[in-house]
Amino acid sequence: MADLDAIRQAIIKGKRNDIVGLVQAALDDGADPNALINDYMIEAMKEVGARFEAKKIFVPEMMIAARTMQTGLDVIKPLIEADGSTKEKLGTVVIGTVFGDLHDIGKNLVVLMLESSGFEVINIGENVPPDTFVEKARELGADVVGLSSLLTTGDPYVKATVEAFKQSDLADKVKVICGGAAVTKKFAMETCGADGHAADAVDAVKAIKSLMGLN
Ligand code: B1M
After folding, report:
1. Which residue out of 62, 116, 202 has the highest number of ligand 1 atoms within 8 Å of its CB and is therefore the one to mutate?
2. Over the stretch 94-132, which tens digit does the pLDDT of each residue have?
3. What structural domains does the chain harbor?
4. Whose CA is nearest to atom 70 of ligand 1?
């Protein structure tokens, strides 16, 4: 039986050379891809964050852990993607990380879950200024725009991006949903006036379907 805790430890310790073999062995043993991500890999990143906060590790270690996480996710990704490739597209979602924020792992997981659930998703990257969100949403015909924010210093940009949509010609056409560790439901919906909030990638699929009247 594959050692699932070794996956968690490999991410925390940034053992990028080991992660592919460990994840592949777990999958070969029949581990559920979503459980691997949620119960071991995301948990590992939470521990990395806690160690960073406690000053036990610093930015370089956090970066190596993130690369190890990403390498492990790349092994799992094709299995999850395969689920959505044949479905009819439910709608178009444009998603990015807000201005000033370079974190992309959580956003990329949201992209993966939305794609595997049948959405067309255009990932416009990180450090995205408010006006760029609006321009891209218009250009790409978005039904929903997703903002990801991991830094509390990003709060003003979440608010500015939601406001940029409200003041644009897309105000009544495009729904805006916010997520990421820095964004609470109260902040997103009451302070910023966003249409929706999601706590994680699975919740993002549910919330976007609900905003589009699909469930
Ligand atoms: Co950064 N970082 N980081 N970091 N980093 C955090 C976020 C932090 C909480 C760590 C800590 O102190 N405990 C802290 C923020 C504190 C705060 O603002 N309150 C922090 C800091 C301070 C910083 C720097 C400022 C450090 C520095 O330079 N001194 C710096 C900022 C750089 C910048 O962005 N301008 C920085 C840099 C980095 C790295 C580059 C080293 C690396 C990112 C690499 C990368 O993304 N490619 C990094 C990492 C890895 C982290 C932690 C450890 C892990 C983030 C992660 O990938 N988690 C993080 C600690 C933590 O989160 N506990 C931390 C796994 C991922 C799957 O979860 O991203 O939360 P998450 O996504 C979830 C949900 O949030 C949600 O679904 C996802 C899946 O479940 N979600 C959405 C996300 N987006 C969504 C959008 C939606 C819906 C749901 O709808 C649209």
Report:
1. 62
2. 999 999 999 999 999 999 999 989 999 999 999 999 999
3. 4-84 (1.10.1240.10), 92-211 (3.40.50.280)
4. 181
